[in-house]
Amino acid sequence: MGRKVLKYLLEKEFKQNLRNPIMLPLIIVLPLIQLVVLPFAATYEIRNVEMVIVDNDHSAFSRDLEQKIASSGYFRTRYHAPTYQEALSYIEKGDAAVVLEIPQHFENDLGDGRSAQVFLSVDAVDGTQASIVEAYLNGVIQDYAARTLREEALQSQVEVRNRKLPSRIQATAQMRFNPFLDYQTYMVPGILAMLLTLVGGILAALNISGERELGTLEQINVSPVRKSDYLLGKLIPFWIMGLLITLIGLGIAWLLYGLTPRGSLPTLLLFATIYNIGFTGFGLFLSSVSKSQQQAMFVAFFFLLIFFLMGGLFTPVSSMPHWAQYIVYLNPTWYLIDAMRLIILKGSGFAQLLDQFYAILSFAVFFNFLALITFRKTAK
Amino acid sequence: MSDYSVSARDLSKKFGHGHHAVQAVDGVSFDVKKGELFGLIGPDGAGKTTLFRLLTSLMIPDSGTAVVEGFDTVKDYRQIRRIIGYMPGRFSLYQDLSVEENLKFFATLFGSTVAKSYDSIKPIYRYLEPFKKRMAGKLSGGMKQKLALCCALVHAPKVLFLDEPTTGVDPVSRKEFWEMLGTLQEQGISIVASTPYMNEAVRCHRIAFVQNGKVSECDTPENIRRRFPHAILAVKSRDTFTLLQDLRKFPGAHSCYSFGNYQHLYLHSGGGAGDAADRLRAYLEDKGHHDISIQPMEASIEDCFMLRMSKEGGRYGDV
Ligand SMILES: Nc1ncnc2c1ncn2[C@@H]1O[C@H](COP(=O)(O)OP(=O)(O)O)[C@@H](O)[C@H]1O
Ligand SMILES: [Mg+2]
After folding, report:
1. Do B96 and A19 lie within an 8 Å CB cutoff?
2. Range with the lowest mean pLDDT among B130-134, B157-161, B184-188?
3. Do residues A334 and A328 touch, judged by C-beta distance below 8 A?
């Protein structure tokens, strides 16, 4: 009997979801809008950032590096300053935003096969912008290092060190992987993660609590249907919706930004699936413990906001205060955003994503277990 | 097996703790015979819905037991869920599924099919069949009520629990509905229905009053009316408000309640109603009332209920 009931439970959920006038717009328009608007709303693209260079080495290598940075198009070397102190005065006047200091012995260090350092100070209004400037510059420098040093057959490397600006916002964050140096594509994986969170968390939270308000839940409870069948009947449609929204989102990202995942699509969908099942469990748990749909909605929003804000989507985790960073480790959304970025932008394989995988899996198991034990057909 | 379809013994259920605790069901015992149409009559908050939840195995009682068709509601809830039909307070239907789909859904939940139970739901379903493709949300109140009843019946249950099935439905549909229940009962289904409308009590074989979580006077409406201990005078005059005040002060008055345009005066036992009517007329004229009408009358279920309420000190007490 179980299988037949489940089949009809699913049939019913699909009918209802397809008839729900907001469902189709939600699945197509929501990803579209998020993917179009959010990256632009948060454009941090770097062009012609004014830079001051303090070259203490005056060597062929240091000039070469300057050349490279200038020709990247992202930075413009406005000034040369003899000392760091003087360089700071340009920043204070607002004439430049970045100081790059090449220390003495830069060439020697590289020639001797040691790692050479450059110091970077970024004047940034906020941590995110600073981290982007850093990421760009880092990219250019590493690019320079890789090519030049290979040509010269040197076993050295260039290390970019951040230096704190006096009484200014310190920029310490580093973007991890964005080989395109393009903020739009950087946002896309995070937005996909956000969509999955919304579909699972909010829709699921509304669902059972809605049936409770309607009274149909009592009818179901008084029937011989097994609660695992009932919950599966709820979970599977949200899971399919989550996959759909991910695929649609990827399609839109491809159309708008020409972005295709570097890593494998099955791996990406596996992460999306487990995460989505986890959040559906979370939503089902919330709706089975709340008294009304409104209550379920509020609590779901409260948690989702925290998950988003502490998920590294808008603010890099490393620029959060220390205590907050610990919370991030408990945040499933952070793991998913991280995994999505690694898969889509960097092309990481499953083997490199085990940490994220286990974190998301534990979360999914935990919340579905909670949903199963808190959903009761008989009240105490 | 006993002759009873439903037996409740000392059922109790409390919500909350300390100051905020509500004793929703308080030591309730009653029996419903097989094939009987049993009514639970009581105002809002009396504990009817909670009682239904206990009887349908949706809620575990704090103490006491309930047995439905020989199955204990706590131990044998699995068996119970196969043989009962329940229509919760507000008709719970999926507004965005059609009449047909709602039926099919509830049939499947109980492991049955619409075709298998077609005969038992036919007396009601025939009203709905012309609209079977219509979304439940687009039906009238009376139609929704019929569909909800069909959904509760679609697995051919032995016992039907109906929680305020006529609340919020037009009078014509209400009448029709009770007639349908009569048909079902003739087919041998035991029915327990609650209602806040006392005029519906006479449609039941036996009724029980529910008040403050307690159940009293399980008997036929006829017997309950016959046991009413007071003679009743229905009184009307031009000034309704002072009339009630004056009637309560009338020597020989036990109590007095408003029933629409009439005040029902319950007299202390001893002394015929006819004799009292004359004394009352003189008393009221003396108080300056005009257009006085006084008629002796038989007790109705409403009278029994009002009296019951006042004894219990419920919120319907001295109005
Ligand atoms: N789940 C609950 N939690 C707390 N109090 C409840 C709950 N259900 C009912 N009550 C209270 O129990 C009393 C009886 O309620 P109920 O059984 O719904 O009465 P009725 O159906 O006759 O209107 C009311 O005072 C109500 O507020
Ligand atoms: Mg009720």
Report:
1. yes
2. B184-188
3. yes
Amino acid identity, position A290? S
CA–CA distance, B131 with B136 (Å, rounded to integer): 9
Q: How many domains does chain B have?
A: 2
Q: Output the CA–CA distances (angstroms, integers) from residue A242 to A119, A283, B122, B268, in the order listed.
A: 45, 14, 42, 74
Q: Is the residue at B79 inside a domain?
A: yes
10 Å CB burial of residue B241 (0-12, 13-18, 19+) is exposed
pLDDT digits (tens, 9 = 90+) for B115-150: 888 888 888 898 899 999 999 999 988 999 999 999
Beta bridge partners of A120: A100, A162
**Same domain? B45 vs B72:** yes
Distance B90 CA to ligand 1 centre (A): 14
What residues pair up with B233 in beta bridges, in sequence order?
B265, B296
Q: Which long-range contacts (CB under 8 A, 24 or more apart) does B42-48 make?
A: B42/B194, B42/B196, B42/B209, B42/B210, B42/B211, B43/B196, B43/B211, B43/B309, B43/B314, B43/B315, B43/B316, B44/B196, B46/B210, B46/B211, B46/B212, B46/B213, B47/B210, B47/B212, B47/B213, B47/B214, B48/B163, B48/B164, B48/B194, B48/B210
Q: What is the CATH number of the domain that holds B260?
A: 3.30.70.2070
Q: Which domain holds residue B8?
A: 4-225
Is B310 domain-assigned? no
Are the beta carbons of B121 and B99 closer than 8 angstroms? no
Ligand closest to Cα of B13 equals: 1
Whether B135 and B195 map to the same domain: the answer is: yes
Neighbouring CB atoms inside 10 A of A80's CB total 12
B260 and B208 both lie in a single domain: no
Specify the pairing of strand B231-236 against strand B293-297.
antiparallel
Contact A378 B60 (CB under 8 A): yes
| Separation between Cα atoms, residue A251 and residue A270, nearest integer Å | 17
Which residue has a Cα nearest atom 26 of ligand 1? B45
Domains in chain A and their CATH numbers? 49-176 (3.40.1710.10), 182-374 (no CATH)
Residue % of chain B over a pLDDT of 90: 48
Q: For residue A149, give the amino acid letter.
A: L
Nearest Cα to B106, choosing from B53, B154, B158? Answer: B154
Tokens representing A279 are 């959040």
Dist. CA B25 → ligand 2 center (Å): 12
Q: Is the dihedral of CA A193, A197, A198, A199 positive or negative?
A: positive
Q: Does the pTM exceed 0.90?
A: no
Q: Is B97 near chain A, with CB under 8 Å?
A: yes
Tell me: the pLDDT tens digits for B101-113?
999 999 998 888 8
